[in-house]
Amino acid sequence: MTSLCPHCGSAHTVPQRTGERVGGSIGLVTGLAGGFSGALRGAASAAPAGPYAAILGGLVGGAVGCGLGAKVGCTVDEHILGNTRCQDCGHTHSPPRA
Ligand SMILES: [Zn+2]
Questions:
Q1: Helices (H), ranges, 1-98
Q2: pTM for this prediction
């Protein structure tokens, strides 16, 4: 979606994607933590492959969490923040709602 800069009228505007970055980071951290703790609990009850299960669980949890977080953040960007930055004058604005 392209929107014109309300300040200088330029069409050179880009979305800031603040929510997507923040959401991805939060999802990554919570996913890693959840994955590791789940894998550690499983490893404690059973396997000799404990450390590997913990690492694998953490990586999978992190990847899933990051993807989910970015998705949520992207929705936040589109519907709530809507920050768009003009590349010509640096003005930040919200694009008109469709
Ligand atoms: Zn501008």
A1: 18-45, 50-76
A2: 0.49
Exposure string of 11-20, with b = 16+ CB inside 10 Å and e = fewer, is eebebebebb
Q: What is the pLDDT of residue 8?
A: 96
pLDDT band of 12, cuts 50, 70, 90: very high
Ligand 1 centroid distance, CA of 13 (Å): 8
Q: Tokens 């979606």 map to which residue?
A: 1
pLDDT at 43 over 90: no
Domain ranges of the chain: 18-93
pLDDT at 9 over 90: yes
Q: How remote is the CA of residue 66 from the centroid of ligand 1, in Å? A: 32
C-alpha 77 to ligand 1 mean position (Å)? 20
Give me the count of residues in the chain: 98
Give the residue carrying structure tokens 């880009």.
14
